[in-house]
Write a structure and sequence with these properties.
By secondary structure, the protein is of the alpha/beta class. Helix content is 40%, strand content 20%. Strand 5 and strand 6 form a beta hairpin. The chain starts with a helix and ends in a 6-residue tail after the last strand.
């Protein structure tokens, strides 16, 4: 029997999915990580005119993806995962960027998602948000229900005070939040450089959001 928390997650997800639809994005709800991986591979398997069955798939930095086997699921399904860590030299990095911008799909999480269906992301170099905005044919977002917020302002607060501090610790950034756990509005080694709110998708259904009824990532 579902717990009150699980039922609440499901109710919130239904609200978000309805609002994603009006914003020309697709939403799906999965109760578990395993169900979410099945949904991911199902979405990648979709074909059509000019859409290959074997996809090239890029990804943005995400503890949700790294800790829960989503990238392994992509490879196990027979798709080509563009492993960006394998590209080292300046020439190789340029090649990697070209592959990513032309990928069939880009996999990422989101720092926050509002109940009204808006995506809130803060990035350092901007590579993750740039491919969300433009380039890959499809963007698939996997997000735990711990990322849900009431509105954009709450989303920004969540990212700066909940998601960014542990990320700065993980990345060994010398920021105030890495030591205090609270945003210090810094200009030094900050990873809070690009603030992007995705209000809607200009290309219908290009962005797909898989909501997971678990707490995932930061």
């Amino acid at each position: 029997m579902a717990s009150p928390k699980q039922l609440s997650y499901k109710n919130q997800a239904e609200t978000i999915i309805k609002n994603l639809t009006k914003r020309k994005m697709q939403g799906f709800y999965c109760e578990t990580v395993e169900d979410a991986k099945k949904k991911l591979t199902e979405l990648l398997a979709q074909t059509g005119e000019g859409i290959p069955s074997k996809k090239t798939v890029g990804y943005g930095g995400s503890m949700t993806l790294d800790e829960n086997g989503f990238k392994d699921a992509v490879k196990a399904a027979g798709h080509e995962l563009i492993i960006r860590e394998n590209y080292k030299t300046p020439e190789e990095l340029k090649e990697c960027k070209a592959k990513l911008v032309n990928a069939d799909a880009f996999l990422m999480s989101t720092n926050a998602i509002t109940l009204d269906g808006e995506l809130v992301n803060i990035d350092g170099r901007g590579n993750r948000v740039s491919f969300l905005i433009y380039g890959p044919e499809s963007v698939i977002i996997v997000a735990g229900m711990n990322k849900v917020v009431s509105n954009v302002e709450d989303g920004i607060r969540r990212v700066r005070n909940i998601a960014t501090p542990p990320n700065c610790v993980r990345l060994n950034c010398k920021t105030p939040c890495a030591t205090t756990g609270k945003c210090g509005e810094c200009f030094g080694d900050s990873i809070c450089c690009q603030f992007v709110v995705t209000r809607m998708s200009r290309v219908p259904d290009r962005i797909k959001v898989i909501l997971v009824g678990e707490e995932l990532g930061y």
